[in-house]
């Protein structure tokens, strides 16, 4: 679901990084940002307000401040009131060490109840940092059931019914040098169109629950290199219980795979049968290696079928095997 971000939360998270100083309307921290787009409303100062959208951050750089200073005080107040009447989330003035905004800017911000900040960064730096941060925190997101791992550098989500052994497989993968991202309830966010990035909820970070062992802190047990903060999801591996007698009916020449859609993004999914005696951690590793092979244009299943078909055709023509 889409999110909005309160201005005071933005300030707490980014004040140090952006060198922010809260100048006016300190009581309006409950204003919300609803878009990752950051605007520089240059044309708004000459009355072109059609493309100034509400609930967005606005940035005044040197050009905008220089233009304001050329106006008479009443003209500045009128132009600024028209801009602030659009329902802005907040205004940020860049490069505070290089320019002093006219007093009417803070006056209008206070009068309209719109938070006004000053930043030490230049306007290109400010827009870049804000857009990157807002794209992440405002992205559509969902929580899924499973264990999210970094296996050989590939973001891999282990899914399956409760009790199928996801956490046990994850624990063995960790002992084999792979990395935990999130257990039980990974959060997936569509930060870039067509891409899902997974993280752990803060309360679950670094922890995994294994039946018989309870809650384990993976960072403390295996060191900081055993956990990763986030990763792009590339592959879903579904663990599926299969009675032993049904295993013989599975096509051994073809990997069982399909796609699963999350937040409108289709993800490749491989199903691994779970039966006693199978080393699922090794099978997960091989499934990841197979994904890399196919991504590089190599398909062993297809190659084998073509080779088998060629051999059969040779036999049908009375080849050397007849």
Summary tags:
2 domains, nine-stranded mixed β-sheet, alpha/beta, Rossmann fold, 322 residues, five-stranded mixed β-sheet, Udp-n-acetylmuramoylalanyl-d-glutamate--2,6- Diaminopimelate Ligase, Chain: A, domain 1, 18 strands
Span of the ends, CA to CA: 64 Å
Main β sheet profile: 9 strands, mixed
Q: Please give the share of residues in helix.
A: 25-40%
Architecture per CATH nomenclature, i.e. the level-2 architecture of the largest domain: 3-Layer(aba) Sandwich
For the record, what is the CATH homologous superfamily label of the largest domain? P-loop containing nucleotide triphosphate hydrolases
Shape: elongated
Number of strands: 18
The third-level CATH topology of the largest domain is Rossmann fold
Q: Mean of residue pLDDT?
A: 88
Spell out the helices and strands N to C: EHEEEEHHEHEHEEEHEEEEEHEEEHH
Amount of beta strand: 25-35%
Radius of gyration: 28 Å
Helix count, DSSP H or I runs of 4 or more residues: 9
Summarize this entry quickly:
With about 325 residues, this protein is α/β, with parallel strands linked by helices. The protein is built from nine helices and 18 strands.
Question: How would you describe this protein?
Answer:
There is one protein chain. The protein is α/β, with parallel strands linked by helices and 322 residues long. The chain folds into two domains: 133 residues, 3-Layer(aba) Sandwich (Udp-n-acetylmuramoylalanyl-d-glutamate--2,6- Diaminopimelate Ligase, Chain: A, domain 1); 144 residues, 3-Layer(aba) Sandwich (Rossmann fold), CATH 3.40.50. It is 33% helix and 28% strand. It has nine helices and 18 strands. The strands form four sheets. Strands 8, 9, 10, 11, 12, 13, 16, 17 and 18 form a nine-stranded mixed beta sheet that branches. Strand 17 and strand 18 form a beta hairpin. Helix 3 runs parallel beside helix 4 and helix 6 crosses helix 8. The radius of gyration is 28 Å and the shape is elongated. The protein starts with a strand and ends in a 6-residue tail after the last helix. The model has no long low-confidence stretch (mean pLDDT 88).
